[in-house]
Amino acid sequence: MSPFPPATLRRHYEQAAADKAAGAKFYELLRDYNQQDALVLGYKAASEAIRARDASMLDKMTYVQQAAHTFEQAVSQDPTNAEVRFLRFSVESNLPAFLGLSKHVEEDKEFLLKAALRHPQSGLDEEAFHTVRGFLVGRGHVSEAEARQLALVGE
User: Fold this and answer.
1) How far is CA 46 from CA 3, 87, 124, 154, in A?
2) What are the distances in angstroms from CA 138 to CA 32, 85, 121, 147?
3) How far, in Å, CA of 82 to CA of 153, rounded?
4) pLDDT tens digits, 102-137
5) Where do the domains of the chain lie, and which CATH numbers do they carry?
6) Most-buried pick from 22, 44, 93, 107 (CB within 10 A)?
7) Confidence band (pLDDT; 50, 70, 90) for 6?
8) 22 vs 62: CA distance, rounded Å
């Protein structure tokens, strides 16, 4: 059993995405995590990416590279974990292309679309499914036809 329940990690991530102080708190919460739970590692990587967003220009690249490395660990631990893939996708799809660190965006988008269309056999709980579907549709990552298909899933 993880010391970090998924629902708690999700709350921290949502708050950290919107608020610099919450971002610092989220990073501190997971900074020293060194176990091998793929989902917790995924959230640790997300906290490192958020830390990069709020860091000085000199430190931004260090945190982004740290996040990329932690995402690699998380995905290699559990390559079929849709929530881990979503976290990587949500970070990489927001990185500037010139950094060259968004190499999994298309792969993760396809993975997430297929997983979401299989819901409830997606490997995502209800809350995570709604978050993934909302992100894919709301941010324009899927076509109108795919958005319509997703709207029919789980309702």
Assistant:
1) 17, 7, 18, 27
2) 33, 18, 22, 9
3) 16
4) 899 999 999 999 999 999 999 999 999 999 999 999
5) 6-152 (1.25.40)
6) 44
7) very high
8) 20
